[in-house]
Every structure is written in structure tokens, then in C-alpha cells.
Amino acid sequence: MAKQYTDSRMVVFAREPLLGSVNTRLITALGEERALALYEAMLSRTVNQAQLSDLAEVDLWVSSNISHQFFLNICNKKNIFLQYGEDLGFKMANAIEKTLQLPSIKSVVLIGTDCPAMTAEYIESAFAALKAGSDVVLGPATDGGYVLIGVREVVPGLFEGIQWGGDRVLATTIDKIRSQNLKHRLLDMLWDVDRPEDLLRLDELEPPLASMNRS
Length: 215
Prior knowledge:
Blueprint: E1 8-14, H1 27-30, H2 32-52, E2 57-62, H3 69-74, E3 80-82, H4 88-100, E4 107-111, H5 120-131, E5 136-140, E6 146-151, H6 169-179, E7 184-186
Parallel strand pairs: 1-2, 1-4, 2-3, 5-7
Antiparallel strand pairs: 4-6, 5-6
């Protein structure tokens, strides 16, 4: 099936699923093995939602080991790329810049893996906002960050000087956008899974999160 936004790209940011290195804030509540299982379930759900939406081609940008079998199970090898940069901000900036350099690509929507509540309709609203003229689109998270960011061009300094994981990530990003007189659109606020108290919300998901037994 043809993609709806052929001049756009979807980027999913992920870490290599290694025991003890993902969902580290949840290990005290779940243990290392179940924290890893939850991470893999959320990553798989995110990529699957993005691919089934048929909105745009989906690229998976990973922290390390692009040949990890789990990555290859959920994404075509030609669409898996290695993140690079000093911190999360530099890594996102580099991924967006490289993607926008691809022939005919005019917009990029980047999402993470810790928001299982994100739907294809939500992602579509981001692409629609960019097509309608917004320079930047953001999906706010309840913890003060964001679960999605989309741009039509590289925005200088957009990912610099931000305390990632803090409660002012979204506010600081909006300040940077406004300082450059750019148009931005805020989508509906979504919850993500960062802390043990967030685990209770997994029961709200429809369909349920696969391959994650929390009993």
C-alpha cells in the first residue's frame, strides 16, 4: 500500500534491548528481566503501530548493534540506523538532519518507545500539522517532556542545552521555538512509562500490551 505522506519519514528512537540497561527506573519494581520484557513489548508495539499506519516509511535509529536480532525481527535491515552524538539531543538532531537530507523528504516525525498509548491516529495528526504549515509539532507528555517531535526543516539549537529526563523539556523546547519565531503545534498530552507508578496505566491500553505479563 502506498504511503500517505511519501515526502515524509517516521523515525523511531530505540536503545539496544540488553538486560539491566533499559527501563532502569523500573528495575526496582519489576526486576531486570521483566523490565527488559516490558521494553521489548513497548518497542515492538511502537514500531508495529508506525508501520501499520502506512503514513510514511519508518526508520529505526538504535543506540548500538544495528544487527541485534530483535531489531531485525521488527524492522527491515535497510531501515535500521545507528544513533551518534554526545547525548540524546545531539543524537536526535543528527538523525533528523540526516533524514531531511534524503531525496524528496520534506518532514520528519520522531518518536520514542516509552509511550505505548500512542496510536496511528495520533501520529497522523502530527504529519497533518506539518503539512498544514507548522514548523514544529510536539506531543506533550504528562511528565513535562514530549513523546513526539516533528519538523519540516532543521531548527538550529532545538535540542541543545536541555536537561533530558527533567520536567521542563517541553517548556524549554517551546521557548527555543518561539525565540526563532517559528510556528508550532501541540498535540494532545499522552502518558509515558518512566517510573513504577506509570505501570498501573498499562491496564488502560487497548489492545493490551503484548508479551508483558506483570502478574
